[in-house]
Design brief:
CATH topology: Spore Coat Polysaccharide Biosynthesis Protein SpsA, Chain A
GO molecular function: glycosyltransferase activity
Helix content: 40-55%
Number of strands: 9
Keywords: Glycosyltransferase, Transferase
CATH class: Alpha Beta
Radius of gyration: 17 Å
Structural class: alpha/beta
CATH architecture: Alpha-Beta Complex
Family: Belongs to the glycosyltransferase 2 family.
InterPro entries: DPM1-like, Glyco_trans_2-like, Nucleotide-diphossugar_trans
Number of domains: 1
Protein name: Dolichol-phosphate mannosyltransferase
Largest sheet: 7 strands, mixed
Order of helices and strands: EHEHEHEHEEHEHHEEHH
Distance between the termini: 29 Å
Shape: globular
CATH superfamily: Spore Coat Polysaccharide Biosynthesis Protein SpsA, Chain A
């Protein structure tokens, strides 16, 4: 059995879903996939079911009744993956905005270099975003800076949705205390894990906007994050965060991971 599983939440991703599944399964590291589909009316789940006949136990799917939010999709996936015994659990979009090949680098940062969490970061080495209008680039970049300022998080891409979590980090969390379901969910997860004392590193990636399907991003999603971050910080003053246990491998610093991943980009 693979120790890696990638969670991909979907809603109307028929243009991308087969291609992303085949790409992940072609990688040099063995990854399984869990699709969490929120009742896509375009037939996304039907495509996945057909591919399950080909890929068998490597391809999992949870079907939900409707659009219940990104956060609940991931938490449903986290619980399933922990029950199934996976050691490294990943978040990734279905639309190729996250390059599946970077999953290998996220895996190495955790499984080999010893991080608890690795983040595919758009902003750790400049601004690495392709095909976004400048307005959206600036909105995203300064949203992350705003989150850093309010929360004190010590890394650059606080809103990233391309992440590898170690089993021990996710198993340490009380998912009932994760309250946000939209864009702010990504911030809350990083903030909570950081407050528990886990080692989080950033792996530089290039983010490419989708070419197929429709974006799920909206102004309302950013508004949720702006208000939610303040609530998150205030509530943290009244909450105890149980410290994590010592990791099995020696912790590495954010700067060490940055140097390694930048070197790998140059070699590639």
């Amino acid at each position: 059995m693979s120790k890696n599983i990638v969670i991909i939440p979907t809603y109307n991703e028929k243009e991308n879903i087969e291609a992303i599944i085949r790409k992940v399964f072609s990688l040099e590291v063995d990854f399984h996939l869990l699709i969490v589909d929120d009742g896509s009316p375009d037939g996304t789940a039907i495509i996945v079911k057909k591919l399950q006949q080909e890929f068998g136990h490597r391809l999992h799917m949870i079907e939900r009744s409707g659009k219940l939010g990104l956060g609940t999709a991931y938490i449903t996936g986290f619980k399933y993956c922990l029950e199934q015994g996976y050691d490294y659990i990943y978040e990734m979009d279905a639309d190729f905005s996250h390059n599946p090949e970077d999953l290998v680098r996220l895996y190495h940062a955790c499984a080999i270099d010893g991080a608890d969490i690795s983040i595919g970061s758009r902003y750790v080495s400049g601004v690495n975003v392709v095909n976004w209008p400048m307005k959206r680039v600036l909105m995203s970049y300064y949203a992350s800076k705003y989150v850093q300022f309010i929360t004190g998080l010590p890394f650059n891409d606080t809103t990233a949705g391309f992440v590898c979590y170690s089993r021990r980090a996710l198993a340490h969390l009380d998912f009932d205390k994760i309250k946000f379901v939209g864009y702010a969910f990504q911030i809350e997860m990083k903030f909570t894990i950081w407050k528990h004392g886990f080692n989080i590193v950033e792996v530089p990636i290039v983010f490419t906007d989708r070419t197929e399907g429709e974006s799920k991003m909206s102004g309302g999603i950013f508004k949720e994050a702006v208000i939610g971050v303040i609530k998150l910080k205030v509530n943290s003053f009244f909450r105890k965060f149980a410290p994590c246990t010592a990791p099995q491998q020696e912790k590495i610093s954010i700067e060490e991971t940055k140097k390694k991943t930048e070197a790998s980009l140059v070699e590639a």
